[in-house]
């Protein structure tokens, strides 16, 4: 029996367990959950057409298939394209959600057929949690690929930078690479990674190299730091055979060459990303959002796709993974739960980074950050995550309406950037003593563990934790 969906269209449920090097397992269910077909396929038109015929066998005319699969590597794209072009509904569910349902349905067994049937039952188990997959157009698809490529290359470059710092720390334990790895530092390491060679080069040559490469931003002081680190290493290690100066220096050179190659490729992809972004978002609405600029705006537009596919800003915030998890039982509703972290991690990271900038530019977001830090006892990161959630809702509104973001004061009146910064400085700047109490790092002694968090539920002024009455448990006498 076919059951109709909300739009009056009869449907059947198709679960496809994707295989990378093996055939895909397929299970077909009626809308009431009865299994009516089993099959397998490979990503060809002939094989997928046969699956479609099996799924529609015996169904009434006009039946639509609800095809559900997990994002297994690159194997999901051919399936999505084929069935979407045929007019069927395509759903891509998270592996974590499918694993939870699979654990409930089949606790003691795991086969490809069971996995396919589990996916087919997802529309029955969680109908509201499924978001229909919309395949992007040519420009949006190109932007998405460039954004992903830039993200992977940036991550790879970061790993090579960390590796370079680790190798230099082994060569020179008192390494001067405490912050970012700049062009001048790479130039020094390309020529003088071996501390003995660096000392033999002389202060004048080293200073000249650093001055030229850094564009006169650094000079003799930076050269002195490098020479001091090299001298300390030679004094510590001496000629001990366990320290392979030459081999460590050669490995540093390899990492630098790989880093430069990645940076060159990243520049090419970033240029193409900018071109595609301007086609997809010609008005650059995403960049009107506070905190979103050259990198974050393309990430937002590529991940959101068509804004209308989300019911509202709250649903988009949930998609990003910035919504707190719910924890309710009886009359209890626990607040302060961690974020769900569902959705694209790159997009979520972009929102959290943008939030730290946005709370310095927008008085309304600054107020949210201020209250989280001063009254809710939140750390800087947690407060930024709360701001990021509000920023996600505003991002959806901006892109859905097609109008630029306007910075307003706390009464909703538009203000200039200068006026906004003045409002933030006067009213919503977190005191330094509050920041110290929220930090985990030991900067000058151990920070106090508690802070005043505003009036309690009875309206009484806050009291220090040490003065609040504590309930004592009296142990029975033995």
SSE arrangement:
Blueprint: E1 3-4, E2 10-17, E3 24-29, E4 35-41, H1 45-56, E5 64-69, H2 76-85, E6 89-92, H3 95-105, H4 112-120, H5 122-125, H6 138-171, H7 183-192, H8 195-201, H9 203-213, H10 220-237, H11 245-280, H12 296-304, H13 313-320, E7 328-329, E8 332-333, H14 345-358, H15 363-374, H16 380-401, H17 417-427, H18 432-438
Parallel strand pairs: 2-5, 5-6
Antiparallel strand pairs: 1-2, 2-3, 3-4, 7-8
Helix pairs in contact: 3-4, 6-11, 6-12, 7-9, 7-11, 8-10, 9-10, 11-12, 12-14, 13-16, 14-16, 15-16
Walk me through the structure.
There is one protein chain. Residues 1-6 and 463-478 have low confidence and may be disordered. Helix content is 51%, strand content 8%. A hairpin with a 5-residue loop joins strand 3 (24-29) and strand 4. With 478 residues, it is α/β, with parallel strands linked by helices. The strands form two sheets. Strands 1, 2, 3, 4, 5 and 6 form a six-stranded mixed β-sheet that branches. The protein folds into three domains: 3-135, Nucleotidyltransferase, domain 5; 143-272; 286-326 and 337-438, no CATH class. It has 18 helices and eight strands. It has helices spanning 45-56, 76-85, 95-105, 112-120, 122-125, 138-171, 183-192, 195-201, 203-213, 220-237, 245-280, 296-304, 313-320, 345-358, 363-374, 380-401, 417-427, 432-438, and strands at 3-4, 10-17, 24-29, 35-41, 64-69, 89-92, 328-329, 332-333.
